Please model this.
Amino acid sequence: MQEPLGPVHAEPAVVGQEPVLRLTWTDRVTGAHGYLVVHTLRSGIATGGTRMRAGCTLGEVEDLARGMAAKTAAFDLPVGGAKGGIDFDPKDPRAFGVLQRFVAAMQPYVHAHWVTAEDLGVPQHLIDEVFASLGLGQSYYSAIRRSADPDATMERVRKGLNAQVPGGLLGDVIGGYGVAHACLGAATSFGWAVEDTAVAIQGIGTMGGGAAWYLHEAGMKVVAVADAAGTLYAPNGLDVPALLDLRDGYGEIDRTRLPAGVAQLPRSAVVGIPADVFVPAAISYAITPDNSFDVAAKVVVEAANAATTPEAEAMLAARGVPVVPDFVANAGAAAWAWWLLLGWVGMEHNDVTTAEDSFRLLRTQMAEKVQLLLGRWHSDAVPPRETGLALAVSDLDGQEHTLVIP
Model:
């Protein structure tokens, strides 16, 4: 095991540079491989979730860590970007043990530098259970231990994550809320009335389900959702709350109890559903050169990390279809977690205030950023990713932040 990373005031790297650290781990019980990539350090901290899926690779985790570096910079957070990943099936009954052993092996980094959270295949309650079993309290441990009052910060984090809001717990839905407002911002940029805008969503788990809920609540027509079992389609709009109630623990919808009028299509069909907005919210590399021409939407909003390959994104741009990149569109959960840690939200004494402040801050920032990205697309045909990366790099090149957690 390597020693903890460098000095706590390490200068931030530019998003395009080599990562600070690549680490490969092998589970001695199952033979599974796990990876930690720290792309940037700011204030001696890097943040990024831990995912688990069969086939996860070091290259994938590296791409995701780079995206996290862009995400934290674009939202002006005083931390760098990292990512953890484990090549293992999260449905395997041994998965909890694999995750527990991975986190145990990563303790030098968890203690000193790495703040992690949920990701694909690893819900927040599960990773929190692992951290608690190791005596680390909660997955934000590395940040909480630096705070002026760790007990008060831990209480603020737990209260924020577990605040009950429409659609579920605040910590579960805030990322999807941000994606929904990225979609709403795109509709505004294109001049579409919300009620006349159709959206198709690939993935109906935490991120996709939260986005579907809040888009439905806003009046946008969610015409298709896809899970591992296939695509569900209704051209006049799906009953999103009813479908979400039919999900199991893996985000799959019970087909035996579908509402009337819902067509069942192959899983891959969601990419080509006639819609104004397509939201890939399931897996990385969902849009590739092979299926990019199937995309029927006028704009893609990435809810999954690295949902579009660079080649596919260039092909979409050539067709006049912009991609709102993941490090903006799906940054809500990461940004909000740090706002909560930093006391920018959640300092009041009731859950309602915490939720109202959180939603207000996120929708304001998301609207501003999507307007900037798509504004340049409309005026100068500059791809949104290029504008977003320029925004991130300008922040990284600016004055180094000081991390102060109350």
